[in-house]
What does this fold into?
Amino acid sequence: MKQNEIMFDAALTDIAGKADAQSLNRWVGEILGNETCGLKDRTYHAVFRGTDIDGAETLIGACGRLCGFRIYVSHSGIEAVLDLPDGSRETVSEPARYETVPFGAVFAVLNRMHGRLKELIPAEFGDVPVIGGIESVFLTDEPQRIADYYLPELVCFGAAPRFRMFRASHLAADLTLPQDGTAEPYRTGCKVIAEAQYPDRDRYMEKMPEILGLLKSDVLQKIVVSRMDEVRPEGFDLYDFTAYLLDRYYQEYFYCFGHGDGTVWTGISPEVIMKQRGTRAMTKPLAGTRKKTGDPEEDARLREDLVSTEKDIVEHEHALYHMYDQLKGADIGAVEILKNKAVLETPYTLHLMSELSVALKPGKTPFDMIGALYPPATIWGIPVDETERALPLIENYRRGFFTGVFGYFTANGDANTALVIRSCSITGDKVRIYAGGGVVKYSVPEDEFDETVNKMRPIRSYFGA
It folds into this structure.
């Protein structure tokens, strides 16, 4: 073992299993509830389903936090903490004065921490996923967590029928994957006994003229305004809910994770922020949306309308070419547009979708690419700093992981990261459902509000739309 590698005892084994995302989700829950399994940290857990850059299915189920890093940001600077299995810590502090989130500086620190953690992981564990994400924050005087990545105590990854299990030695030796991936019956709804909207329609309509004024005066080119519906359901069951989402609405990604603070996030995002294998990487911006009706002739008309309406074309091209320019300007590798304004069909919507590929230069990391793109115009706005100043005019809640990113990287050079949209958070007895819509100077406020309602529909349908 190298001198600078993390000193821990762990094993990596190949195992057979028929697990799917839902059975992995229940398996993780069972381990979290098992007081004799030896798990030291029950506040971190994750289930992730997606496809890799080559289109192969990827499933991950993880419990506990063996080691990792967190990054905090405030008006007064950036602080990063690398925590090791023996309880020791390495800290990086960069005092400075910032008025808005210093994304460039944050990603520079994030890249340093990524490199430090990567060099500590023994070579035999180079394929084990390091799990985590980036939160969407508005800068304040108080430090806020903006990034958090960790190597789990226990993680199974792969796809049926073959998985690999990484297990810290302090865990019980008899932990095995579920062998039955058969879908279980689920309910089709859950009664809501209280709800609220942030902002509600009245506040949205009251504040939108100010946002449109910033667009028409060219202070902003585009801004993505989001909303949150908060519901208090009766008899809510997380696993029943995730089975419902996976069966009816699964798209590019599914995730269900807890990140140390008592809140669980789950969703079915259609949007890739980046996928990587070695020096190959890609991203797929989505912007421009139509709600499907279920009628083939009407949906065909909506498809034609989507590719020909100026508002949607302008919104998408703002996002696409802003991403293209960001990647070119970052000088991380050759950039190519593979698809331009194709129509992506999901179970309930139509989106305009483009695809960008990047041939990464040697030594470039997932965070070089994510840092070049984040926050993308599809969930934030242009320009970035002016968007951060404008959003609190209308958004009266903290986004958290909504419009952040979630996924994994490995020490051997793979990565897969979803943009956290079409999602909800569960804290105590409250479920918070999030959605946003891109606004340009041609936008009609009533239509933009309705777009957020439509994007919430897969999750709201479980609670009554």
In short: The mean pLDDT is 92. The longest helix spans residues 310-330.
